[in-house]
Design goal:
Distance between the termini: 78 Å
Low-confidence stretches: 289-320
Number of domains: 2
Radius of gyration: 30 Å
Strand content: over 45%
Number of helices: 0
Structural class: mainly beta
CATH architecture of the largest domain: Alpha-Beta Complex
CATH class of the largest domain: Alpha Beta
CATH topology of the largest domain: Outer Surface Protein A, domain 3
Length: about 325
């Protein structure tokens, strides 16, 4: 023991702990009151609820927990092995947070699960294997958020929509505790967001719409099709706003409208055609308009030069 600057007595140097029978159950070193270097702790099978969960309950106690510390924080690998020196789990840490691979094993030594972390957040693939080493689950995470795809159907085997999501962020509700042999418990907080490719289909199975979201905002190229398979609308988004040339079509495949957006505002010359291909009208956008929205294919007769309104609805809500 030493006294710190405030006069408090703190651990400093070699530390050993024994049970009531005199068996050494913990050994390590303190530096100025904080763990430093390699520590080992022996746990009886009934000492922590962790050892009643899979895969730990399939192994034989007592369990040896070993970890490296730096300035009082977990740094490097924390491993737990059983009485037969079979590794059960191994979790990498940096500055007290999970960072790198965390792996769990079956008694035969094969991998049961592997999760990759980046500064405390799940990032990359989460893979679970069966006892025969076959993959039984594979999930992908991005900065603590699971990437999933939600699918709805018009009827059996006929898809209605398929949208990629980033699920709500996972946070550690209970932190890792080496002393108690307690692993972190994570919970989701916040909202899911559309993130990635999406598609919608007409009831007859033909593609209705295809595009991409990024954090709930439409980005990149988007396409609509009529139920008969003919193109309906095509255009593009930048940061959730229409940008670039947009084109609308009549159900017979003939162009209906062509115009350009810049940062969500209609600009330049817009042209309307009748279904027979004849030009119905041209308008020069001389002042910036509010971001228009595309609902179906607007008819030339309903457009006004100073107030173009083209409605954009969420995937699956396009009017047919």
């Amino acid at each position: 023991m030493i006294q710190d600057a405030e006069g408090n007595f703190v651990h400093d140097g070699l530390y050993r702990q024994y049970d009531l029978q005199g068996t050494l159950i913990a050994v390590g070193e303190y530096r100025n009151g904080r763990r430093e270097g390699v520590w080992q702790r022996l746990h009886a099978a009934g000492e922590s609820p962790l050892f009643q969960t899979a895969p730990y309950k399939e192994f034989k106690g007592p369990f040896l927990s070993q970890a490296n510390f730096k300035n009082g924080l977990l740094e490097g690998k924390w491993t737990i092995a059983d009485a037969q020196q079979r590794k059960i789990s191994e979790i990498a840490f940096a500055r007290g947070e999970r960072n790198g691979d965390a792996a769990w094993f079956y008694p035969n030594g094969s991998l049961m699960m592997k999760i990759t972390y980046d500064q405390g957040r799940v990032h990359g693939d989460v893979v679970k294997w069966g006892p025969d080493s076959s993959i039984v689950m594979k999930e992908k995470f991005q900065n603590g958020r699971q990437l999933t795809t939600k699918t709805e159907f018009h009827k059996k085997d006929v898809k209605h929509r398929e949208i990629a999501y980033l699920n709500a962020m996972l946070y550690a509700r209970v932190p890792d505790d080496w002393d108690k042999a307690q692993l972190a418990v994570f919970e989701a907080r916040g909202q899911d967001e559309k993130h990635g490719q999406f598609k919608t289909w007409h009831a007859n199975g033909n593609l209705a719409r295809q595009g991409e979201f990024r954090y709930n905002l439409p980005v990149g190229k988007i396409n609509y099709w009529y139920e008969n398979g003919q193109p309906q609308t095509e255009g593009g988004y930048v940061d959730g706003r229409p940008h670039g040339v947009w084109t609308w079509y009549h159900p017979n495949g003939q162009k209906s409208i062509v115009g350009e957006y810049r940062d969500g505002a209609a600009i330049g010359t817009w042209t309307w055609w009748n279904a027979d291909g004849k030009v119905a009208r041209k308008s020069e956008m001389t002042r910036r308009q509010p971001a228009p929205v595309v609902q179906g294919v607007p008819q030339p007769s309903s457009q006004r030069e100073a107030n173009i309104r083209i409605e954009l609805v969420e995937p699956g809500q396009i009017q047919r």
